[in-house]
């Protein structure tokens, strides 16, 4: 699964953070603090150094330096990226379903997916019926 396939589903701030520190580290930040605000320090005073250390624990020292340099003194509202994360989960479920149904009936595969992803079998079937959300920015040739 190519992570660039999901960039269009990310909020603007998440896209900027991903461009600055890379998508894997941006996802770590979102996983740790998504849905909250985080005051990015300038790393000059003691409480700023404490916040820098907390940020470093999540994304690493180099990425924390980059974020501090870009956002120092601002309060970031870290997005949850629920739409993009849900799309990743849904694609994983559909791929696992395709793999599982090669060796077992669909009903059993859905039951396993429901337990694994902690959702009802009915909701698993709904996910399986959905198509991938793709970026529609490409224009189709008219002629």
From TrEMBL:
Gene3D superfamilies given in the database record? Homeodomain-like
Domain of life (superkingdom): Bacteria
Domain (Mor transcription activator) ranges: 40-137
- InterPro entries per UniProt: Homeodomain-like_sf (IPR009057), Mor_transcription_activator (IPR014875)
User: What is the name listed in the Swiss-Prot or TrEMBL entry for this protein?
Assistant: Transcriptional regulator
Tell me which species this is from: Jeongeupia chitinilytica
